Amino acid sequence: MTIPPVLSSLLTAHGPSGYETTPAAVWRDAAAAFAASVEADVMGSSTARVAATGAGPSLAIVGHIDEIGLIVTHIEESGFLRFTGVGGWDAQVLVGQRVAVATREGVLPGVVGKKPIHLLDADDRKKVPEMKAMHIDIGAVDGEAANKLVRVGDVAVIAGDPVELQSGRVASRSMDNRLGCYVAYEAARLVAEAGGAAGEVIAVAAVQEETGFGGSTTIAHSLEPGLAIAVDVTHATDAPGIDENQLGKHHFGSGPVIERGTSLHPLISELLIEAAEAEKIPYTLAASGRHTGTDADAIYRSRGGVPTGLVSVPLRYMHSPVEVVQLDDVENTAKLLAAFALRLPADVSFER
After folding, report:
1. Looking at domain 5-67+173-343, which CATH architecture does it have?
2. Catalytic amino acids?
3. What is the pLDDT of residues 304-342, one digit of tens each?
4. How much is the pTM?
5. Torsion over CA of 219, 221, 227 and 232, rounded to 10 degrees?
6. Which listed residue, of 24, 164, 301, 340, carries a Cα 20 to 30 Å from 5's Cα?
7. Domain 70-158 has CATH 1.10.10.10
């Protein structure tokens, strides 16, 4: 199985939180091929609407389009760039990485450097490196040269294209959460292809999830949907060192993960399960006793409350440059959400 072209374009676009313009343009261009209308808001979130065939409730399918990245905080007189993280990083994965710095003149290549291990004291060699001990080297001879190319506030992402692995698996940066916004796009496309659902289906590519749910908070308020499903990634538990007693069993090939929990509407979870079983789509269940750590946490409490569900794609090595997914899990997640939308009764009630 090869990477779908739209997903490939999303994965290669650079767009950390707050700077999602490039992947958002890719997403809107793709959605324009089937949607009745495609729009963007001042936050940078995008929507694609599939018209209703009846008087059913509107369904928002929300995947965030931002990724983690780096932001330049200081330019040294020597020409090296100091930085901090945009979103949550395991800092040790940054050592020795090539990066792409987005500047006003275009993308500038650089590398993440730190003091070589040969020069570290014995105790320091045992410590996990911190970001404050790292810098970005763009090859500038001094600070004056660097300042002509880069400004404080410019952002960077890890450089590198997606790699197709064995068994229909793919490695790439930005899987979290270009996968979610791709699934929202693809589910809406499938609904449009089927002629529409009883209620309007609105695919959403929300911004700024990694830094505080900015996009999902505002888009849920403005759309005021009848119900919503957040689409994100979750930890695949078939990698070494992961305790299934804590996280549950979510292996590659086991399909979408339907979450049940205190902030999620129980009827939506049940209807997702019914749709999966009716369409013979493999799935697993996960549970959250408080917050989910996803856009669902912002959506369900919008205005007077939005009935909200959560579906996730199993992912290995989250928040790294080599996140790995199995493509048929992505495909099945989109199929599940499309089936859910098409099966949703026009007179469904979420009162409880």
Report:
1. 3-Layer(aba) Sandwich (3.40)
2. 209
3. 999 999 999 999 999 999 999 999 999 999 999 999 999
4. 0.96
5. 40
6. 340
7. no
